[in-house]
Design a protein that fits this description.
Elements: H1 7-40, H2 42-45, E1 46-52, E2 58-60, E3 66-73, E4 78-81, E5 92-97, E6 102-103, H3 105-110, E7 122-124, E8 130-135, E9 141-142, E10 146-154, E11 157-159, E12 172-173, E13 177-182, H4 186-201, H5 206-218, H6 222-233, H7 240-252
Parallel strand pairs: 2-13
Antiparallel strand pairs: 1-3, 3-8, 4-7, 4-11, 5-10, 6-9, 10-12, 10-13
Length: 259
């Protein structure tokens, strides 16, 4: 026998379900607004400034262009991820102008699929600046001399002052800084390759060796590419950091046919 419901009962049940649905929508909307507000708030409470390391503003092609990001917070409740990786993770985006005259070799390498590491180094933010150093060459190869301007978008900041807000990462944008790139002649690069090769052969530990290999990796002309190939093929027994720097150096090269 089929059950039959009185019209009044059906109406009351319908109103009950509509009311529950409306409450759920309101809760979702409120949570979304809270998260949105929490994500926007750090833009006023946290600050990041950009500068060229050592106040150096003129570089030859192939020389490392080092950037310093300085983070501060007006109040407690913020942490900074200070981890840097190679290849560079998506936590930072280096934006250069003009685009012409440079090549975003990292995008070619990663096909825009860069990864976040499964580890991190965390610092608590305060009024005292916390510095993170980046090297532009880990994103960009300069093809031509000229004056360039750079700024950085970064998602290194995390909120920590409540469980609901923990991990919310606003995107911060730095000020812009400008610098000049001058041409490095083949003779100049050859001399620099010889200098680095001599120091590499005399390196006393893997840390020194990796640092020098990184300097070699940033050179982009034919003399450095030949040296990178030689060291790549004879790199058995070298540290992973050394081998990694030589490998990425081959990808940074202007003429990859030589590699």
């Amino acid at each position: 026998m089929n059950k039959r419901f009185a019209p009044g009962l059906l109406m009351r049940r319908a109103r009950f379900f509509v009311g529950c649905f409306a409450c759920a929508l309101a809760a979702i909307s409120a949570a979304g607004q809270e998260n949105s507000a929490a994500a926007k708030e750090p833009a006023a409470a946290v600050h990041v400034s950009l500068a060229l390391a050592g106040d150096k503003s003129i570089f030859r092609t192939g020389e490392p262009v080092r950037l310093v990001l300085s983070f501060t917070a007006e109040r407690a409740g913020y942490q900074l991820d200070t981890t840097t990786t190679k290849p560079a993770s998506p936590i930072d985006d280096v934006i250069i102008s003009p685009v012409s005259g440079s090549n975003r070799w990292l995008d070619e390498y990663s096909f825009a699929g860069r990864y976040y590491p499964d580890y991190s180094s965390i610092a608590t933010l305060s009024a005292k600046p916390v510095r993170v150093e980046l090297t532009m060459n880990d994103w960009i190869r300069f093809e031509h001399p000229g004056r360039y301007t750079v700024r950085v978008k970064t998602s290194r900041v995390r909120r920590t002052n409540s469980p609901r807000e923990f991990g919310i990462a606003p995107t911060l944008e730095t000020n812009a800084v400008s610098f000049d790139v001058k041409a490095m002649s083949e003779a100049e690069e050859t001399a620099e390759v010889r200098r680095l090769a001599t120091l590499l052969d005399a390196a006393k530990n893997w840390q020194e060796e990796a640092k020098l290999a990184e300097e070699l990796s940033y050179l982009t002309g034919a003399p450095s590419t030949r040296e990178k190939v030689r060291r790549f093929l004879s790199g058995a027994g070298k540290s992973g950091n050394y081998f990694q720097n030589i490998f990425f150096g081959l990808y940074m090269a202007r003429d990859r046919v030589l590699a």
